Input
Amino acid sequence: MTIELCHMALRQTLDLISLTDSTLKDLSRRKFTSDELYHQVLAHLLGGKGRRGPTAIFIALEGPNCTCCSGRVFHLREGEMIERSDVITIEPESSYAISLVRVEGGTDVVPINWKDISGSIEEFQNFFHPSVVRAMGDPILNFVSCRISGGSPGVLVAFNYPGGASEYDADVLRSAAVVIGSLVTVSDEMRETERAFAYTIEALARACEAAEEDTGRHVVRVNRYAGALAANMGFNLAFVEDVSISAQMHDVGKIRIPAAVLLKKGPLNHREMQLIRQHPAFGLEILGDSPRLKVARDIAISHHENWDGTGYPKRLKGERIPMAGRIVKVADVYDALRSRRSYKGPMTHEEALQVFREGDDRINPEGHFDPAVLAAFFKIEGMFETIYDSSVLKIAMNGKKGKANSKQPAPAE
Output
């Protein structure tokens, strides 16, 4: 029995090493959420389908500004699906299993069976926080408790191993705690990097809008329109997030266009129009070849292409146009119709809808837009109106606030 447990522990530990390796190879901000990480790690630990393991695990991480721990109890049901409890927040001292491994200088992992410390199974339940006992459902018979170290410290407690908790089980749980602690720390750092990336992209987008009216607000609205379209077309979360942040880069190439051309009142001459039509190519050059900016590049180069192949700069047709570009084209055209420009006044939502249905002297809906994207637009056009109107309302409120502040008496010298 001891040799069999040793082999099982070795197999589980090797599985965890393999999981760590594959996770780091595929590392991205979306593939690396805590829930997904827990799901994969726990699937290697919890019992079922011939695997030795506990029936439930409590993962509790410390809060950033307090010593209390918050987490969930996870179960394996029907051999595959992991269920989880509501969030449980406890003081470490209220749980014997947690306090055991939080003692300064103490051991980092401890296996305990009810007979080791208690006269009965009923009495043994008193060693655990009531919320954890309720989440378990069945009486707790044994556990292995292990400290999680790293940037997000906490505790991993595994309950009810078949036949009792052993030192081999403790070794496997220690491996899992190292995996969780290390990868969650990397995940936190990745999110910080992602926030810095988003800020940089937004700053670049604001720069390319600085010479035009409605500074910065146009790109924010286009982001929101494009994200709503992508989500309602059923694309996965990764694509929706990419489109939602990358859409604002659609006109980044306008940085290379003189303000005198961008703000010219009235129609552009042939030379000026040719210059304007180069901004997608300029955008492609500015964004470079970073893999992280692929969707942004797709949008920048293709958001003026038309479904029927009459657009620019490459006269791409149909599905040769990147999907992100097709989505942003609808978003950009709607906002352009609604907005005031140096050469035109703003349209109402109803007037913009009419253009999307019937066209005008510049827009041919059937020829210019992907039919699937156009259908999604009409399905959620109310969201577009809300996004635009809320932006305009915010502008108006800020304007009133600024006027009110300007009327305040100057402070005494």
